[in-house]
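During the second half of the funding period, the structural biology subgroup turned its attention to how the target accommodates small molecules. The most pressing case was pyridoxal-5'-phosphate, which had performed well in the primary screen but for which no bound structure existed. We therefore specified the complex as follows and requested a full 3D prediction, including the ligand pose.
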Amino acid sequence: MKIKRGIPLIDQHDKNGFYGGKFGGNYVAETAIQPIKDLSNLFEKLRRDKKFLKLKDHYFKNYLGGETPFFKLENLTNYLGGAQIWCKDVSAIHGQAHKGYHATVNALICKAAGKKYIVGDTGAGMFGKNLAMAARELKLKCKIFMGTKDIKRQAPNVKFMKDAGAEIIPVDTGSATLVDAVSECMRYYVSNCDTTHLAVGSAIGANVFLKICAYSTAQISKELKTQVIEEFGEIPKMKLVNVIGGGSSAIGFWSEFIDYPKKHVELIGVEAKYCAPLTTNAKLAILHGAAQYCLTDKNGQIKETHSISAGLDYPGVSPLHCFLKDTGRARYCSASDEQALAAFKLVTKLEPSVKPSLEPAHCLHEVIRLAPKLNQDEIIIYNNCGHAYKDQKIIKDRIGYFPS
Ligand SMILES: Cc1ncc(COP(=O)(O)O)c(C=O)c1O
């Protein structure tokens, strides 16, 4: 299995939508086949359409707020005494997480398809909130599917979604978390695909859905590449560390750097310890329309997962990450709830200007572990892909305070 150089990662699938001949595909209900084909044709046309690209850039700049900051974490670097630690602060975007990029692109695609209704899934509420906001901006009617467990633990985002005019559909099946919300949302779409656009919250699902998502979040690495060259005069040897739930933020953070040799730009993905298909050599299974590594029980059924972080509580992972793992281009590891909380505590104490949500706090654990082992001229960049406001209560309950 090999990655082809010079071809965007999202386009490296075969005619049936498989990456590396085995990840992804289109395992969809018969009634959804034609609507998904139509969406695929529309997306391929739009991503090459100058007018659409101008519109997307306009919304990224004037609605999402343009380029997000890139800066060195001086105090953390000095404290750990090894590699330089840099932050790409994607949480500074309007909507406070990378989900703003694919929520906006999906809303623009929905408009271009002439549909008035948009539906999406959410776990941490970041995609739900961003989709609700984008729908309001573009005058679309929006439904968000969310597990009842997540509705309770991510209350600030639930309020945002409601205030933005979205209807929240509580999902009480299974573990009442993200995996169930995605299933219910996809079911709803299959029965309503004539009028409704489906926006999937991560780089998962049948081929076109993961392509739309990864295409949109690529904005992060496009900006980062320019910022790194401005700062260092070249692309230096560096490590790009990102948390992995479904995998949308990591794919967006890495996509411009896939062609660099891994000794030059190392890609490190950090899963939550008990939702870690890539770290635990999980088996291949089909989930939400695509083949991927997935946590399953001895009967092959999807296993229940646990994470303190609602955004990471997913038993599968993007087929694109399965491909990056099996080709050896990216390395994956995991962090526990406690390790993420300890990383949050240390980073917010030393660097009051960053407030990582629980998701990027997981990858900060790996940054903190790695940095002291490296030389001072080595560079680690992590993606601060979400803001902690949504986790205030959980953090306060677990560590006794929420930093001001
Ligand atoms: C802030 C944040 N980061 C990371 C994730 C994990 O998802 P993904 O791996 O698709 O970026 C989520 C999911 O909701 C999130 O809200």
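Two results from this model are relevant to the next phase. The mean pLDDT is 97. Residues 27-60+98-214 form a domain with the Rossmann fold fold (CATH 3.40.50.1100).
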